[in-house]
Design brief:
Layout (H helix, E strand, L loop, with lengths): L8 E6 L12 H11 L4 E5 L19 E4 L2 E4 L1 H12 L7 H31 L4 H25 L11 H15 L7 H11 L2 H12 L13
Helix pairs in contact: 1-2, 1-5, 1-7, 3-4, 3-5, 5-6
Bound molecules: glutathione.
């Protein structure tokens, strides 16, 4: 069971998030790695509404996840995945083209897919009904579809992006889950199946369950006059 209160590795997440974000907070990516590899970690759960006063000294953008590994401290979930893979020698091929492929797809998830997806998410989730959002939506959908098509073409009929299951798949499946939840994978059944394959892994399910178990409604913002 990777969650262990005395583990050397500490992953910071939240103690509550709004329902739309539950199961999607990016500490899932680090938890998923630990579950896949049996690497023990302890949780540090902070408030999303009321972060520690010096939080930006740990995460310059005031976000999660943050990872502590003994004396080492990292932010950015992609850097965290890379650190954990290098530390354990797992989920990242050691050398050669296989390693290059996994690194390329790791960065592609963060750099070439997630930002394009985030634009549509901003439209659909945070600005729905606003005029600028209605005007921008078709182009944002088209841009994301192009990225999906490219990933689907590269994946072809393979199970995972870079040979064996790797940190590239943790990153890409985590990103594409949000595409799936926005119902934008309809034209790409192979990508929908890829997301399903990743989401069916016991380690992923455990990571989600553990994130959800950490949420406590007592930490939700209190509504005035409630
Ligand atoms: N690029 C960062 C993004 C981190 C991020 O967006 N964190 C979100 C949760 S998934 C967050 O903390 N949002 C709350 C906030 O910005 O205050 C990473 O991959 O670690």
């Amino acid at each position: 069971m990777p969650i262990a209160p005395d583990a050397a590795i500490e992953i910071t997440g939240y103690n509550w998030v709004p329902p739309f974000a539950a199961g999607f907070v990016r500490d899932i990516r680090a938890r998923w790695f630990c579950e896949e590899t049996g690497l023990p970690y302890r949780e540090r759960l902070i408030s999303v509404m009321d972060k520690p006063a010096d939080w930006r000294s740990e995460q310059p953008f005031g976000q999660v996840p943050v990872l502590r590994d003994g004396d080492i401290h990292l932010f950015e979930s992609g850097a965290i995945l890379l650190h954990l893979a290098e530390k354990t020698g797992k989920l990242l091929p050691a050398a050669g083209q296989a390693r290059a492929d996994a690194l390329s797809w790791l960065f592609a998830a963060y750099n070439s897919v997630e930002p394009v997806q985030n634009e549509l998410a901003a439209i659909e989730m945070f600005s729905a009904g606003e005029q600028w959002a209605d005007l921008r939506r078709p182009e944002a959908r088209k841009n994301l579809d192009r990225r999906h098509r490219a990933v689907a073409a590269a994946l072809g009929s393979r199970e995972w992006l870079a040979g064996a299951f790797s940190i590239a798949d943790i990153a890409m499946v985590s990103v594409l889950r949000s595409s799936a939840s926005m119902e934008t994978l309809g034209d790409h059944p192979s990508l929908a199946a890829y997301v399903q394959r990743g989401s069916d892994r016991p380690a992923f399910r455990q990571a989600v369950a553990d994130q959800l178990a950490g949420f406590d409604d007592r930490f939700a913002p209190q509504m005035e006059n409630a």
